């Protein structure tokens, strides 16, 4: 079934600040402090990253992103997509050899990675000489400079005036390879966004105030349901961070919605029963 008038990710991003009164969109914990970012701030930071990529990389570059969930991950991933480049999300616990195999197969020339992946990145670059551009997502100074140098008031403002084509490849996600070599699955903006517009799916997405995001954003279900869905529906998205902080952060954010895989649900239930037993 093909849906009509499915918005692009860029349209969701542009419409969200006004649609949701520019209220808080994302919350996360840093140095024991809850940081809040509004819908407008997420849009402006993402478009700044978009402009930086368009000013730095050739058109239609394939950009890998290797990181756990963070605010910088969201900004970078959104910036890749709305700049009409192609994003390749990769789990950060992958070996350097596995990452290199994906980069070579996907013709990747740029890599964004979390600080913890830095040592592996040295080996990845040795194995993938085509990679000529990289950014460490944990480098806050670099991101603040991007937000400043590529703001909507800068000389680069026009670089974000680009129309995202709904049916073009926006993202390539690789299978786990359990039945052979990993296979790249190409997804368009339309394919991603239609999941939150299709009525049998949208009916199970609760319009709650606070959504607790536990799964990693490189997990395509999490990216669609915990990021694209709040852009459409106006949820406050709370990033959990480390799994060891799950219960502590649950008490801090006090969410009324979360989406998890069965293994996490089982672990939470066991913890609750252990507390009850005491």
Commentary on this structure:
The termini are far apart. It is globular and about 60 Å long. The longest helix is centred in the N-terminal third of the chain and has 18 residues. Strand 1 and strand 2 form a beta hairpin. With 278 residues, the protein is an alpha/beta fold.
> What would you call the structural class?
alpha/beta
Share of helix, binned: 40-55%
Q: How far apart, in Å, are the first and last alpha carbons?
A: 52 Å
Strand content: 15-25%
Largest sheet: 5 strands, mixed
| Number of E-type strands | 11
Q: Radius of gyration in whole Å, from Cα?
A: 19 Å
**What is the strand arrangement across the widest sheet?**
2-1-10-9-11
Low-confidence stretches: none
Order of helices and strands: HEEHEHEHEHEHEEHHEHEHEH
Mean pLDDT: 92
Structure annotation, total helices: 11
Q: What is the 3D form?
A: globular
């Amino acid at each position: 079934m093909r849906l009509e008038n499915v918005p692009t990710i860029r349209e969701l991003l542009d419409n969200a600040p006004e649609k949701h009164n520019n209220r808080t969109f994302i919350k996360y914990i840093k140095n024991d402090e809850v940081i809040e970012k509004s819908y407008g701030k997420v849009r402006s930071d993402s478009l700044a990253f978009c402009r930086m990529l368009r000013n730095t990389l050739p058109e239609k570059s394939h950009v890998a992103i290797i990181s756990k969930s963070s605010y910088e991950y969201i900004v970078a991933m959104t910036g890749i997509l709305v700049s009409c480049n192609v994003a390749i999300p990769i789990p950060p616990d992958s070996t350097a050899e596995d990452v290199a195999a994906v980069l070579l197969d996907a013709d990747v020339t740029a890599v964004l990675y979390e600080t913890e992946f830095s040592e592996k990145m040295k080996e990845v670059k040795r194995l993938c000489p085509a990679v000529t551009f990289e950014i460490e997502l944990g480098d806050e100074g670099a991101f603040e400079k991007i937000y400043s140098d590529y703001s909507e008031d800068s000389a680069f403002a026009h670089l974000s005036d680009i129309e995202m084509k709904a049916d073009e490849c926006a993202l390539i996600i690789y299978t786990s390879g359990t039945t052979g070599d990993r296979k790249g699955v190409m997804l368009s903006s339309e394919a991603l966004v239609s999941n939150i517009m299709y009525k049998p799916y949208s009916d199970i997405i609760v319009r709650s105030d606070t959504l607790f995001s536990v799964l990693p954003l490189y997990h395509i279900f999490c990216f669609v349901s915990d990021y694209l869905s709040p852009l459409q529906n106006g949820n406050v998205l709370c990033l959990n961070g480390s799994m060891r902080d799950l219960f502590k952060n649950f008490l801090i954010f006090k969410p009324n919605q979360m989406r998890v895989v069965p293994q996490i649900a089982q672990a939470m239930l066991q913890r609750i029963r252990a507390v009850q037993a005491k």
